[in-house]
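Support request, priority: normal
Reporter: lab tech (M.K.)
Component: structure prediction queue

Hi team, I submitted a job for tRNA(Ile)-lysidine synthase from Geobacter hydrogenophilus yesterday, and the status page still shows it as pending. I've pasted the exact input below so you can check whether something in the sequence is tripping the parser. The sequence length should be 480 residues. Please let me know if I need to resubmit or if it's stuck on your end.
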Amino acid sequence: MRSPQNVAHWSEPMRSVPAKVLAFSREHSLFTPGDTVIVAVSGGPDSVALLDILISLSDLRLNLVVAHLNHSLRGAESDEDERFVADLAASRSLPFVNEKIDVRAASAREHFSLEDAGRRARYEFFDRVMERYGARSVALAHHADDQAETLLLRLLRGAGVTGLSAMSPCRDGRFVRPLLTLSRSEIEGYLHARGLRFRIDSSNADTAFLRNRIRHELIPHLARFNPEISRRLSVTADLLAADAEVLETLASEALRRTVRERTDDSVILGVAELLHEPRGVRYRLYRGAVSLIKGSLLGLSYKHVLQIDDLVRSRKPNLGIRVPGGVAVVRSYGLLTIGRGVEEAEWEGDIIIEGPGCYALPDGGEMVVDVGSPPEDLATLPPDRACFDLDCAPFPWVVRGFRPGDRIRPLGMTGTRKVKNIFIDEKVPMERRRLVPLVFSNGDLVWVCGYRTGYSARVTEKTVRTVLAEVRTSAGTALK
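Reply from support: The job had stalled in the queue. We restarted it manually and it finished. Here are the results:
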């Protein structure tokens, strides 16, 4: 624990720092007067300064709740941090809520790094505290130097404009960072001027963590080239964040232009429309579509975005890939489908049709078969209905899915055609082909449902008995 000296010439930070934070908060609409705000306090210098500054902003009339998560990483030292924060909250007559978690055990159990496991545990804790107190936001103590470190960290790991824009003043409308406008030195000056005590986390000096190596080794090295490197990097992150906002707006507008169909499980985009968009907009558009389906972009890398773009730009009409999170991306002619369960489906087993009746199909639809008089004009039958000479197409029928090598002699044509080529001509999506019912009688293919009827079972002037068949989809819509 440290208790800095109260030096008279540091009285200026006592006035300027809160004013700077207030202006920044108003600029980014971080608070509304009367808000209940959870203040994340570890006991370190930054969070102690954050709590003190928020208390001083009396015009905002904030209802503050002090929250502390004990990570159990430093034994007795972690417990002392917890007691320190509890005493700090009590000295300010503020509500205090705390939890204790074994982050090391969580890291091993979930196969996350210690840093990632700790971050996940903190945000889950914040969610619980927000719900308990009905809070509007959680205030975090990240400052401009943290911003610089985060930019360098993401640069080393690889990131685009959004990643390099680092931390935003307000994330998800719930997590606010009022101190992003302050440097570490400004915070230290404020702490000294106010005579505030705080705790020092010994793990912050452990260079086994990449962030600590950036803080203690890389930034001091870069400061030899520019003493204001942290401030410059923070400004760069802010500029990139502004650019990211513009790009996100463009990508959202492009997504609306390119969407052909949207369901809970999939987004269908027009390939031609996608190709009219600039490359950078397309990349963001793909990410936005994936996020709509899986709810996050966790695991989606630049490599996956390039793979999706390759599908869009390919001359091959039917291609598909899978990306992290159980999301399939399928290019089928002029459409790109991003969703769950859009991969190529399979028809399991054969359906035997013994006679008139209603028979369930694998995709949730049904086939209705009835013996009766033919319609007056066979040419007017819609694609989902067909009429056959029952003597030429006797029961039992076998209904199954497409298999390589299937052929039919289509009505009105000489010779046979591969069913595969019919699908290609009709631009049937790859993921639908194996669910198109094929009707066989006496081993002869008499109907590719929705696309072609067979010559051998045609109705002629000599026909005595006719049979009508209709395919109804699960939604009650036509096949094509």
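Confidence is low (pLDDT under 50) at residues 1-10. The chain is about 40% helix and 20% strand. Let us know if anything else looks off. Ticket resolved.
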